[in-house]
Amino acid sequence: MAGALIVGLLLLVALLAPVLSPYPPDAINYRHLLSPPSTEHLLGTDDLGRDILSRLLYGAQLSLSAGISAVILSVLVGVPVGLVAGYAGGMTDELVMRVFDSIIALPPLVLALTISAVLGPGLVNATIAIAIVAVPTYARLIRGQVLSIKNNDYILAARSVGVSSRAVLFRHILPNVISPIIVQAALGVGFAIILESSLSFIGLGAQPPTSTWGSMVQTSFQYLELAPWFVIAPSVAIFVAVLGANLLGEGLRNFLDPNQKKAAQKT
Amino acid sequence: MFAFAVRRTAAAIPVLVMVSLIVFFLMRLLPGDIIDLIVSQAQVDVSEEMIAELRRQYGLDKPVYVQYYVWVRQILAGDFGLSFRSHQPVIEIILPRLMPTFQIGLAALFFSSLVAIPLGAISAARPNSIWDRIGAFGTFIGASMPYFLVGGLLIYFVSLQLGLLPPSGFVSPTDDLTDSIRHTIMPAITLALSLTAILIRQARASFSDVLQHPYIRTAYAKGLSETRVVVQHAMKNALLPIVTILGLQLGVILSGAVVTETVFAVPGIGRLLVDSILGRDYPIVQALVLLIAAAVVLATLLVDIVYGVLDPRSSRM
Q: Chain A: nearest CA to B77, how far in angstroms?
């Protein structure tokens, strides 16, 4: 519940950024460089005198959409691959899973960094890198589900009356294995936001003038002593968004499958 | 048991081969290779023939699978090539960077075990108690906090405001042990946060599992206190899965090290990876990514085998 509330509010705030922002996000004001929070600038100003609150609100649009797009991309690739691998079995399954095993051997941020280096810096490329990192998670999850139900009677019945493999996969299997994917996707958005902000913090994510929460943190860090609010504001925004996504994922897990909770805690 | 270890090791080899293939091809996709670099650094105009000659010298005219074969043979011989920027052997650049990462990672594991194991035990012994709620809440906070928020707050309050600990850098324990510890504390706490979140869950699950056993009920029935039952009777069995799970956190630690070492300017391998990617020093990137993946695969393998030895039931597959 709390998760849905936080996520809903954040999405609303991002959508309403043009209405809510007290200043244009890129209005430079040289008379107010790094000024502390005040009634005029609720969260203070940054190194160019721009209003941090307005920049956070507009940054929400990019940070949230990068996180959500990365998850959508990885679900779109991971789910079909996992479905086919689990259903086909044999060599296909073996090969696909070995490839994913080796991708998972690379720590997420290390892999995302390397892929970003290959693709070049930028928010779109960072999003693609994050999506690639997450594909094995979804594929493995759905494959496990498919393996556990593919020999159920109703699947065998569908096949024996001549339903095509594709229809069996997408009309009979997919609807029954999708709930853990929904849970994982909610958690995945949080993870993607953390990864994007880490990439931006390192300098491989959003490039100026594009600015996400992560790239705000990157710029602000050198002013930590002078203007701590400049670091804290975007960092806390990231924290709240990730917390919201994690709480939402957990809430969905309990809602969609109460038995899942026990199983998840055991692994 | 021995057969299990051999079988498990054999299963790790294809993963390692696949990892090396992925790294090899990723590196071939990177913009700009060694030839471009030489050409860009040359003071004179470089003719097409000279470029072709250079490609021959570096073996880039050979078919890709031959290049891969040559590359793997060099790596197995411990030769990771030369750095683009400093022209030193890559391995000599990496080795001195291992110590800071290792020291901070180990300290982080220590801190998070110190918090997570008791908290997990209390949460499991008293489900839905205040401790259980604190544990569950801590799990969410820990898993959601970005490293730079924790690191930034620590640097600001502990170093800049209170002046208690140095804000950045690293000192080797052989040079000055006290100063080394002072430099390790904040990065280790930062790194420990998400680890603690994972560990609390594991510890709670593990203790809950053990506390279901009949011998625990017997211990309670004998009139032993809750503390004695949990600490003396349940602990030994509950710790086994927790300790082995620690070995599986190497990837989390290395991922976290990238950001943490950037925040605290620690000269470890995380910082080296970032610097090499930003500076396009691809031989170092390639070696680091490969070594990190190999370390993760080997750690997982080791955990499985150790677990098999300690709990023989798990190896009977």
A: 22
What is the CB-side half-sphere exposure of residue B81 using CA atoms within 13 A?
17
Spatial distance between the Cα atoms of B215 and A129, rounded to a whole number of angstroms: 50
Higher pLDDT, B20 or B39: B20
The single-letter code of the amino acid at B104 is: I
Contact with chain B for residue A97, Cβ under 8 A: no
Size of interface A-B (CB pairs under 8 A): 134
Residue A265 banded pLDDT, cuts 50, 70, 90:
very low
Say how far apart CA A102 and CA A164 lie, in whole Å.
32
To the nearest whole Å, the CA of B43 is away from the closest chain A CA by 27
Q: ipTM above 0.90?
A: no
* B43 backbone dihedrals φ, ψ, rounded to 5°: -80, -25
Instruction: Name every chain B residue with its beta carbon within 8 A of the beta carbon of A247.
Output: 140
Residue A241 distance to chain B (closest CA, Å): 8
Is some CB atom of chain B closer than 8 A to the CB atom of A265?
Answer: yes
Which residue(s) pair with A45 in the sheet? A51
Residues 218-237 of B with CB under 8 A from A: none
Q: Which residues of A fall within a CB distance of 8 Å from B156?
A: 224-225, 228, 231
The answer on pLDDT for A154 being more than 70 is yes
Specify which residues B89 forms β-bridges with. Answer: B82
pLDDT in tens, B284-299: 998 999 999 999 999 8
Instruction: Convert the pLDDT of each residue in B57-87 to its tens digit.
Output: 777 777 888 888 888 898 888 888 888 888 8
As a whole number of angstroms, the distance between CA B254 and CA A106 comes to: 10
Amino acid at B27: M
Return the amino acid letter for A16. Answer: L
Residue of B13, B144, B154 to mutate, testing the A interface (most A Cβ within 10 Å of its Cβ): B144
Q: Collect all residues with Cβ–Cβ distance below 8 Å to A92 and sequence separation of at least 6.
A: A84, A85
Q: How far, in Å, CA of B101 to CA of B191, rounded?
A: 11
What's the average model confidence in pLDDT over A131-155? 91
Residues from chain B that touch A224, judged by Cβ atoms under 8 A, are: 152, 155-156, 160
DSSP string, A39-78: SSSTT-B-TTS-BHHHHHHHHHHHHHHHHHHHHHHHHHHH
- pTM for the predicted model, two decimal places: 0.88
Q: Does the pLDDT of residue B42 top 70, yes or no?
A: no
Which of B:26-55 have CB within 8 Å of A?
Answer: 26, 29-31
